[in-house]
Amino acid sequence: MDNEPIVLLSKREIDKMRQAGRLAAELLDYLAPYVKPGVTTLELNDVAEAWTQKHGAKSAPLGYHGFPKSICTSVNEVVCHGIPNAKQVLKEGDIINIDVTPIVDGYHGDTSRTFFVGQPSPLARRLVEVTEECLRRAIAEVKPGARIGDIGAAIQDYAESHGFSVVRDFVGHGVSRIFHTAPQIPHYGQRGKGKKLRPGMVFTIEPMINEGTWEVEVLADKWTAVTKDRKLSAQFEHTIAVTDDGVEILTLDPSLATV
Q: What is the pTM of this model?
C-alpha cells in the first residue's frame, strides 16, 4: 500500500465521502442504545446490517477478503477485527469498539468508537478517554504541509505519557471508492518525518491504544487481533480530509460541534 500513488480527491468526490461519512456516524449513534449487558455481538451486527440496507447503503466489511459479518465488534482485549457472533454476550463493565463502513454511492464512510457496557472500571474509563483524546490531538495536526509523522507523534506522546502503548501492527489508511489505499497512517512516529499532507488527501486516523504491551496476535480465525498480554485495548476512528486551510472530519455526527 505504501508504494501506491496517493490520489487527491476532487471537491465532488469529497462531498460523496462526506455523505458516506455522515451515514457512518449516524449508524454508530443508532447502535449506541443497543450496547448493554445481555446483548450479543451478533445482534449488534444484525441491527447494523438492517439499518444500513434500510438507508440504501452496503456494509463494506461483509465479504471483504472473506470477512463474514457487516461490522467489527472488538471487546475488551480484542484490538480490532472482532467477528460478531451469537455466543459473545456483552456483560457489565466490558468495553467494545464498533467499527462500521457503509458504502454510499460507491464511497466508503469508515469510523469507529469504543463504547462502555454499563459502568466501566476506572482503568477502562481512563484508557478509553485517553484513546479518544489521542484521536483529537492527531486530527489537530492535520493541515497542508504537515507530515504523516506529526500525526503518529501526537498520538504516541499522549498515550505513552499516560502509561499506555500504541499498536504498531495496524495503521490508518487512505479511503475513497477503495476501502484501503495509500497513504498508510501509523499511530506512532516522529515529527517532521513521512509524506507531506496535501489538500484533497482523504484518510482514516484510528489509534488503537493498549493498557499493557503494544504487541498483538491474530487468532486462528485469521481476523481477530488481541493484545498479546490479554489486557484491554481501545480505539476511535474518523475519516478526515485535508483541506486548503486545515482539516475536515468527514465522519462527525452533524449534531455534534466537536470530535
A: 0.97
